[in-house]
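testing teh design pipeline on a random one, pls ignore if ur not involved
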């Protein structure tokens, strides 16, 4: 622990010429902690500090020493250790800034889309839009597992209507539909991660880890 140190010179003595720069540096080296000396750039050899330091700065440091009570103690941390700690903190801060500056990783799409028939208009559905679609879905081996298109000779079916981008359907559908135009017909191949994943959908005839192919018609959206 550091002990209380009393000022060596009075304000009048410091204002005169009787106290030299060497006197001030010597006193600060003897009395100030290494952290204090580093903060005021007073660490180093006596002669070098006396040569480069300005007396007003030394007087300010002398006054600050008693204001902050950063006196030298028996268990004083070395200047080298303090510098190393500051360097480590600076490196850590730089790494954090670099990490913060790095752009977020863009997730690779888990589907591919091939346009069979181009749609009309400039816009595409956005999250929350209500879309109306006709579709058919096949397993990779060509097995048809679902469709809302009626066979020839029957009453025309109604399109499937839902809010896109809200998780009502598989993600591959949501993502693909939000790239389509009104009236567009597209073939969409969806990887398991954006379809039914490792569990599959037994009730729908979809096995685990199945890649699915859909033909989707975007009838309208609003």
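output:
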């Amino acid at each position: 622990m550091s002990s209380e140190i009393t000022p060596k010179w009075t304000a009048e003595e410091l204002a005169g010429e009787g106290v030299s720069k060497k006197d001030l540096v010597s006193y600060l080296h003897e009395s100030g902690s290494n952290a204090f000396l580093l903060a005021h750039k007073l660490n180093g050899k006596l002669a070098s500090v006396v040569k480069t330091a300005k007396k007003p700065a030394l007087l300010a440091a002398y006054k600050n020493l008693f204001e902050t009570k950063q006196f030298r103690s028996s268990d004083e941390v070395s200047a080298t250790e303090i510098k190393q700690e500051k360097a480590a903190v600076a490196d850590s801060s730089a790494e954090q800034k670099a990490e913060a500056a790095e752009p977020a990783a863009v997730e690779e799409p888990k589907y591919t889309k091939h346009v069979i028939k181009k749609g009309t208009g400039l816009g595409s559905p956005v999250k929350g839009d209500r879309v109306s679609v006709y579709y058919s879905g096949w397993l990779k081996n060509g097995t048809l597992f679902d469709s809302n298109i009626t066979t020839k000779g029957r009453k025309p079916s109604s399109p499937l209507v839902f809010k896109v981008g809200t998780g009502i359907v598989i993600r591959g559908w949501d993502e693909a539909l939000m790239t389509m135009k009104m009236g567009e017909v597209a073939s969409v191949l969806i990887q398991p991660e954006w379809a039914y994943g490792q569990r599959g959908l037994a009730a729908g005839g979809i096995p685990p880890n199945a890649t699915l192919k859909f033909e989707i018609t975007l009838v309208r959206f609003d």
